[in-house]
Amino acid sequence: MQSRRITQHASLLTIILRGLDVVGVVGGLYAAAALVGAPVGPSASIAAVSAAVFFHLAAEITGMYRSWHGVSGDRELLCAAATWALTVPALLVIGFVFDLLEPVARELTHTGAMAWLLSSPLCIVAARAMLRLYQRRVRRKGHNVRGLAIVGCTEIGFQLARNIERAPWSGLRTIGFFDDRPADRHDELPEDVAGCVGNIEDLVCQAREGKVYMIYITLPLRAENRIKSVLARLADTTASVYLVPDFYVYELLHSRWINVGGLPAVSVFENPFYGVDGMVKRMLDVVLGSVILVFAAVPMMLVALAVKLSSRGPVFFKQKRYGLDGRSIDVWKFRSMRVCENGAVVKQAAKDDPRVTKVGAFIRKTSLDELPQLFNVLEGTMSLVGPRPHANAHNEQFRTQIQGYMLRHKVKPGITGLAQVSGWRGETDTLDKMRRRVECDHQYIRDWSPWLDVKILFRTVFTVLSRQNAY
Q1: Which of 243, 232, 221, 467 is nearest to 351 (CA)?
Q2: Which of 249, 284, 304 is the last residue of a domain?
């Protein structure tokens, strides 16, 4: 069987971006040299060229030069910063092997060398940000805009048109919808969707005349014969044609395209933390987790002393929970009860629960009992933000009652999560409450970004202070 490949063609924009990145690396060097008042000598010049080469190699790993159409600008800028973060270690290793570190430090001074490592990513990110702003400004005025046609008057086609309408910076404009079916057999064009309705022959004529640049086929996957017929007719044009599968009929957790031996496949249930996103997520956990642990060290010692003196039993309570991909992990907490349940049956804490000690009631209301989970975060079995881990007994109970319950374990469990700051903290004494919590967990996985994590962490502070549903 002949291998089929989906290829991406280099565009003028990609060439410009590569050039800007080289300018950013070299420009950062000259900016640092000017800052410390040092000349740029041959060793520093060699280091700059090496950094530019390593940056482009790292960009192949992070996907820096892939198409960013439809992707928010902050993710592109974050990817640029992460690419430089991969470049620096490689640069230091090569500098050590070829004995270039000391000559560069002599030419730029140690301060200048450090300034270069910091100024170059700033130059790269700034250049991309300005290019994005320029694109938005030009395209909002109607310049550099290309026509787009949608085959199929379907709900997913209407949603595609709405998405394009909300993103004028993408440089695309919907010309209309084209469908050979009679009006009574396809969905009516909504009022909030612009464009006319024509048939496939009209589309072919417009594509031949160069009025249509891109064509999106949004017919349902079950209409295979119709899709083949449309493709056969469009093959007589030079328009770019894309197939938009109606995956919305499935509950997409986190979708992305992969390549298996040249054949494309799309994920339906997937962990969102791969590649650069995974690096950023882990970096946030380690950096912020370490900072929080430093500030929490004294309160943790005081809580440990209070737990030990107030009741008999261990200071810490270790319970088996489901971690990433459903693997069993040990989750640590300060003991807040007179019992340490960790068996096949675990009763959830309720209001005025007699099992809770006096000190335990206080640390549960203030969430101080969760602080030992910072060690889980640094160990890598948990994250600062993610779905809260439930006792294994509760997992086995609810996985049979709530569809998609186990999908929350496609990411690491968190000390706090979207459900907790959305009002679903505390006891889940009804199936509906647990279902709402799981819906929030799924939303978190679908919509994750570093900024969402930061937002949840800030909201957690106010949630803890309000002490809502904490007992």
Answers
A1: 467
A2: 249
* Residues near 181 by beta carbon (within 8 Å), at least 6 away in sequence: 153
Query: In the Cβ-directed half-sphere of 211, how many Cα atoms lie within 13 Å?
Result: 10
pLDDT at 14 over 70: yes
CA atoms 116, 120, 121, 126: torsion sign: positive
Give the β-pairing of 263-266 and 316-322: unpaired
The CA-based angle 49-58-121, given to 5 degrees, is 65
Q: What is the pLDDT of residue 213?
A: 79
Query: How many Å apart are CA 101 and CA 95, to the nearest integer?
Result: 5
Same domain, 292 and 428: yes
CA angle, 388 then 393 then 396, to 5°: 90
Give the CATH number of the domain where residue 159 resides.
Answer: 3.40.50.720
- pLDDT computed for residue 375 by the predictor: 94
Domain of 333?
Answer: 275-466
Mean pLDDT value of segment 17-24: 90
Q: Is residue 207 part of a domain?
A: yes
Separation between Cα atoms, residue 324 and residue 411, nearest integer Å: 5
Total domain count, the chain: 3
Note the pLDDT of residue 69. 57
Asked if residue 157 is part of any domain, the answer here is: yes
379-415 in b/e form (b: 16+ CB < 10 A) is eebbbbbbbbbbbbbbbebbbeebeebbbbbbbbbbb
Place of tokens 């060290």: 297
Q: Does residue 207 sit in the same domain as residue 333?
A: no
256 assigned to some structural domain: no
Q: What phi and psi values does residue 177 have, to the nearest 5 degrees? A: -110, 145
Q: What are phi and psi of 384, to 5 degrees?
A: -65, -40
Residue position matching structure tokens 């209407």: 158
- Helix, strand or coil, per DSSP, at residue 304: helix
**299 shares a domain with 232:** no
